[in-house]
Amino acid sequence: MDATGPAGGTAMIRLSGVGKTYDDGTVAVQAVDLDVAPGELLCLVGPSGCGKSTTLKMINRLIEPSTGRIEIDGRDVTGEDPVRLRRGIGYVIQQVGLFPHQKILTNVMTVPLLYGESRATARARATELMELVGLDPATYADRYPHQLSGGQRQRVGVARALAADPPVLLMDEPFGAVDPVVRVRLQDEFKRLQRDLGKTVVLVTHDIDEAVRMGDRVAVFATGGRLAQHATPAELLARPADDFVADFVGSERGLRRLSVTPVETEHLEPLDDVRLGDLGAAVEIGCTLEEALAAMLRSDNAMVAVKRGAIFLGVLTPAGVHRALRASLAAAG
Ligand SMILES: Nc1ncnc2c1ncn2[C@@H]1O[C@H](COP(=O)(O)OP(=O)(O)OP(=O)(O)O)[C@@H](O)[C@H]1O
Fold first, then answer.
1. In a structure prediction context, what are the per-residue pLDDT tens digits for the chain, which is 333 residues long?
2. Residue 212 CB neighbours (<10 A)
3. In a domain, 286, yes or no
4. How far, in Å, is the centroid of ligand 1 from the Cα of 220?
């Protein structure tokens, strides 16, 4: 097993007392303790200049910590050869950094070729990865980067980062350059992909909505590189650790809870003599209140049918949404 665990598997990341003071005396990160469980997606969020990118880059040693220890699967990264280390860590940045004069397929093939795969294997792998990130190879393989939209380029960046099948992915504002609608779709798709592939991911964003939507856990950094809170999205929104976090998550945090609270059977009301098709809008049990509310708003009724597969379970009404939010608030407290 190498420094970063078996390729394709998941890895545990641990930061203990990790700090960074730059040569000019800027304290970018203060003694931070953070664990990322295997297969977990951790979002680092906070205002500009609070040390998020510095923290991320210390994990793959693009920046050396001034203090503390960073372990991947129990092994200190500072003892590892940086080149070898980075092979087990995919890295996705906002400016994707595609080769402008190479076709998309060739861009993605670069990584498998780098690892000594034959051209045929690299081509097959790159084609598979394009499909995985939702870019039809028949349409996009032979295009050049400038012939793609920002969101499509971002998908290529993710495909390329996955090409080496690294157990760990580090992402710095990966969806920052795309418009809000495409952004939400990319976030949802990436989250699904990450769950399926079981990668351990650390993702930097300045957007609290992105953090609570995507993170299994969220680390909120405050100015001066202080880790202000490390919690699940639901805990963070229900119980901000201090005034800084409360201010950062914002007064709309009740609304934000919609995206992290699932619809459960106890929030539903029965409806007699109704068939699934009669109500128009229907959602699956376990979806978020946000999704259920969106379906409710699309329908003519002030309610939405909730089902499990083909079975009708009941209806969710605005009062049910309210009850669900109150219950989750109480549970998180
Ligand atoms: N090479 C450097 N030398 C000195 N100071 C630096 C250096 N790189 C970053 N900093 C400072 O360290 C602090 C943290 O920077 P960092 O890039 O980690 O923040 P960030 O939270 O990622 O910010 P943003 O959201 O704006 O990208 C900032 O005050 C920044 O000015």
1. 333 334 556 789 999 999 999 999 999 999 999 999 999 999 999 999 999 999 999 999 999 999 999 999 988 988 888 888 887 888 888 776 788 899 999 999 988 888 788 999 999 989 998 988 888 999 999 999 999 988 888 889 888 888 878 889 999 988 877 777 778 888 888 888 888 888 999 999 999 989 998 999 999 999 999 999 999 998 898 889 999 999 998 877 777 888 888 999 999 988 766 655 566 788 999 999 999 999 988 887 788 999 998 888 889 988 899 888 888 777 765
2. 22
3. yes
4. 16
Establish whether residue 272 lines the binding site of ligand 1, counting it when its CB lies within 6 angstroms of any ligand atom: no
Distance 53 CA to ligand 1 centre (A): 7
End residue of a domain, out of 200, 228, 257: 257
**Domain of residue 211, residue span:** 13-88+166-257
Helix residue spans in the chain (DSSP H): 52-59, 82-87, 104-114, 119-132, 137-140, 150-162, 180-197, 208-214, 233-238, 243-249, 253-256, 289-298, 318-332
Q: Does residue 98 belong to any structural domain of this protein? A: no
In the reported structure, the alpha carbon of residue 49 is separated from the centroid of ligand 1 by a whole-number distance in angstroms of 5
Query: Is the CB of 257 inside a 6 Å radius of any atom of ligand 1?
Result: no
- The verdict on residue 63 lying in a domain is yes
Q: How many angstroms separate the Cα of 115 from the Cα of each of 59, 165, 282?
A: 22, 11, 47
What is the ipTM, given to two decimal places?
0.97
> Are residue 323 and residue 242 in the same domain, yes or no?
no
In a domain, 127, yes or no: no
Q: Are residues 182 and 314 in the same domain?
A: no
CA end-to-end span of the chain: 41
pTM score, whole prediction: 0.82
Please state the atom number of ligand 1 nearest to the C-alpha of residue 55: 18
Q: Are residues 185 and 62 in the same domain?
A: yes
Same domain, 245 and 290: no
